């Protein structure tokens, strides 16, 4: 059983306030390759997955059964395996993590029991992009800390974290936000490859429907079954991808899963070729300015 309580007892959340901005340092721990932070939804406090591949707030139905729910007409939630689930929603009076507070927030309700069973830990929900859209976020994997700053109106063009002062230590990569997903463009050989950057994905994924010459840079190892938020399995080929170019940096080798993304949650964002998850992000300190559409990769 994993527990974040011991880590939180050692590292208190620090905060500063100024106008409509706020800053905090949030410790995180991991369940496998999932990034877990402490957050509160009304009276319940516990583990939430930091998931930039998720549009908004998702709550585990196992712990929020007492809420009045509505059925979202003509809306279904699709996970990485392509499995469908009808969407019910509830309104949370107050949701908070770090120094960020959200009021009267609409949340999707999803059964996350399958993930809890695999990871052996209680998970209350997922924190997605809508809750981070006004922020700069830096994830320091070595220190297990997240530096989060809600950017105020008066500082929207000028704010940057103190660690960004030395531009020689990192590179800046432009990002696009599509359907509340982070999209970056990379190069693999002479092909442009667009990835979703997903902190909730435990593995990197490459679309099997890409042109055949893309896979000249892929060394397959074994066939496995991938899991999503439900019980459906998706067949994938596990292996190593070589010479991916991101900005001015060449990733010599990284593990990937190759599978068909056509009917998965990532098909919503047009022309997505793959997913960069924990296996890539954890290689370095990484940051995002979601207002100015920038991604930072430390060297």
Task: Note the main attributes of this structure.
299 residues, mainly beta, Cathepsin D, subunit A, domain 1, seven-stranded antiparallel beta sheet, 52% strand, globular, disordered N terminus
Number of helical segments with 4 or more residues: 3
- In whole angstroms, the N-to-C terminal distance is 34 Å
Count structural domains: 2
- The CATH topology assignment of the largest domain is Cathepsin D, subunit A, domain 1
Overall pLDDT, averaged?
Answer: 86
The total count of strands amounts to 23
β-strand percent reads over 45%
Provide an overview of this structure:
The chain is mainly beta. It has two domains: 158 residues, Acid Proteases (Cathepsin D, subunit A, domain 1); 135 residues, Acid Proteases (Cathepsin D, subunit A, domain 1, Beta Barrel). It has three helices and 23 strands. It has a seven-stranded antiparallel sheet, with no helix packed on it. A six-stranded mixed barrel has the order 4-5-10-6-9-8. The longest helix has 7 residues. It is globular. It starts with a helix and ends with a strand.
Give the helices and strands, then pairings.
Layout: H1 5-10, E1 14-18, E2 21-27, E3 29-31, E4 34-41, E5 44-50, E6 57-60, E7 70-78, E8 84-97, E9 100-110, H2 113-119, E10 125-127, E11 135-140, E12 145-150, E13 170-174, E14 176-178, E15 181-188, E16 191-197, E17 205-207, E18 218-227, E19 233-246, E20 249-259, E21 274-276, H3 278-281, E22 286-289, E23 294-298
Parallel strand pairs: 5-10, 6-9, 16-21, 17-20
Antiparallel strand pairs: 1-2, 2-12, 3-4, 4-5, 4-8, 6-10, 7-8, 8-9, 11-12, 11-22, 13-23, 14-15, 15-16, 15-19, 17-21, 18-19, 19-20, 22-23
